[in-house]
Amino acid sequence: MGSDKKLEDTLEVLVISAQRKGKGMLFPKGGWESDESVKEAALRESLEEAGVFGTVEGVLGTWCFKSKGNDGYYEGQMFPLHVEEQLDFWPEKHIRQRVWVSVPKAKEVCHYSWMKEALDLLVTRLESTQTPSSNL
User: Fold this and answer.
1) Is 136 part of a structural domain of the chain?
2) Which of 1, 26, 39, 74 is most exposed, with minimal Cβ within 10 Å?
3) What Cα–Cα distance (Å) separates residue 30 from each residue in 41, 82, 102?
4) 82 secondary structure, DSSP code
5) What pLDDT sits at residue 111?
6) Cβ–Cβ under 8 Å, residues 73 and 67
7) Which domain holds residue 15?
8) CA distances from 88 to 51, 71, 94 (A)
9) For the domain that residue 79 is a member of, what is the CATH number?
10) Are 96 and 61 in contact (CB under 8 A)?
11) CA 60, CA 130: separation in Å to the nearest integer?
């Protein structure tokens, strides 16, 4: 018989503090440069903001983001990253905290609805890939 614990309670996800105080936690995110792919940008932002390396595991979804600087909206994609290495020092270490939390805790500390939706999609994706005999 398997454990009674749900995947969302045992899965840990990485969140980082927002640059401005009081804005809660969020996932590494940002724009991409013209000389890189969207996935390369996701890897770069994860390194710059959270100090982690890993493998991008496909697009999780697409959301609209409100621009900080004006009234415009931008479309952004979310990529799950299987973290394989954490650095002790990274470019934004002095302005961001990095914290591993359960999915319910991430939903509590992330203020953006798209982040909560992304977490639900991630859990659904991972649950669908597990077989009853897996030991994940």
Assistant:
1) no
2) 1
3) 8, 18, 23
4) E
5) 83
6) yes
7) 11-127
8) 7, 37, 12
9) 3.90.79.10
10) no
11) 17
Provide the token pair at 23. 């804005």
Q: Which two tokens stand for residue 22?
A: 């009081």
Q: Dihedral through CA 91, CA 49, CA 58, CA 108, nearest 10?
A: 160
Q: Rounded to whole angstroms, how far apart are CA atoms 134 and 99?
A: 27
Q: Which helix (H) or strand (E) holds 15?
A: strand 12-17
Query: What pLDDT tens digit does each residue of the chain (136 aa) get?
Result: 455 578 888 899 999 998 766 678 999 988 878 899 989 999 999 999 999 999 998 889 888 877 666 677 878 888 999 999 999 999 999 999 999 999 999 999 988 888 899 999 999 999 998 755 444 4
Shortest CA distance to 107 belongs to which of 27, 19, 48, 21? 27
